[in-house]
Amino acid sequence: MLELNNVNLYYGRIQALKNVSLSVREGELVALLGANGAGKTSTLRAISCMHPIKEGSIHFSGTDLTKVPAHRLVDLGIAHCPEGRQVFGRLSVKENLELGAFRRKDKEEVKRDLEWIYSTFPRLVERRSQSAGTLSGGEQQMLAIGRALMSRPKLVLFDEPSLGLAPLIVEQIFDVIKKIKEQGRTVLLVEQNAFQALGIADRAYVLETGTIKLEGTPEQLLSNEEVKRAYLGG
Ligand code: ATP
């Protein structure tokens, strides 16, 4: 479904991605792991056309994503849940969620999806009229996930959804990501929290200074000494 081939991405003279190749099959949950600055966010930026690539190719269900303007991604079925959430602070929770569905015409289905999101995150029901900027970090993350899902994406890109959240909330967020996959959606999950990401992933890649170092199933990576040392605390 998603295929990156030998992608090279630069910020000025700094090369952030070096010959990155990875693939995500339909229905798969793939984790992209790595330390700070490894290039995880840059990979997602390249996929969602937020930063041009210098060399290589990126295809989504046969469409060349390097030729697609970023605002068309939703039409293709790709939703990006960016790092730092980026909800619309002055708008209410409900307005943020509705914005996620603004290109959809199937109003009844939109209503059903809204109900699913409220039932998944009851906290958002209590706060639906509250402005998003006044939510806690965890609540904003729930809202960002909810908003991404309101577009009914085929592929969801998550950028560090657990960043800065309390352990209990992290667990809840990972449970929801697992549910999203079980609904038949495809997920690419960028995480520093390797242990938890491997708990729900089908496969994972490890990025190191812009290069894919390892690829495998959670079982393979969890038994790899290098991975254990570098990402799982020994
Ligand atoms: P983190 O987990 O800290 O967000 P990351 O794995 O997502 O890290 P990237 O944000 O993709 O890493 O960054 C990869 C490299 O590119 C880093 O060395 C970073 O300093 C550099 N970089 C990222 N954005 C820019 C930018 N706008 N201008 C210059 N360099 C950048």
Overall shape: it is: globular
Determine the strand fraction and express it as a percent band.
25-35%
By CATH reckoning, the class would read Alpha Beta
Give the name of the CATH architecture.
3-Layer(aba) Sandwich
Task: Enter the CATH topology name.
Answer: Rossmann fold
Question: Biggest β-sheet, characterized?
Answer: 6 strands, mixed
Rg calc? 17 Å
N-to-C SSE string, H for helix and E for strand: EEEHEEHEHHHHEHEHEEHH
The parts where pLDDT drops under 50 for at least 5 residues are: none
- For the record, what is the CATH homologous superfamily label? P-loop containing nucleotide triphosphate hydrolases
The protein's oligomeric status is single chain
Category from helices, strands and their pairing: alpha/beta
Widest sheet, order of strands = 6-7-8-3-9-10
Helix content: 25-40%
Ligand roster: adenosine-5'-triphosphate
Q: Number of helical segments?
A: 10
Report, as a whole number of angstroms, the end-to-end distance: 34 Å
Secondary-structure map:
Blueprint: E1 2-11, E2 14-24, E3 29-33, H1 40-47, E4 55-60, E5 63-64, H2 73-76, E6 78-81, H3 93-100, H4 107-120, H5 122-126, H6 137-149, E7 155-159, H7 167-182, E8 186-191, H8 194-200, E9 203-208, E10 211-216, H9 218-222, H10 225-231
Parallel strand pairs: 3-8, 3-9, 6-7, 7-8
Antiparallel strand pairs: 1-2, 1-4, 4-5, 9-10
Helix pairs in contact: 3-6
The protein binds adenosine-5'-triphosphate.
Adenosine-5'-triphosphate (ATP) binds next to strand 2 and helix 1.
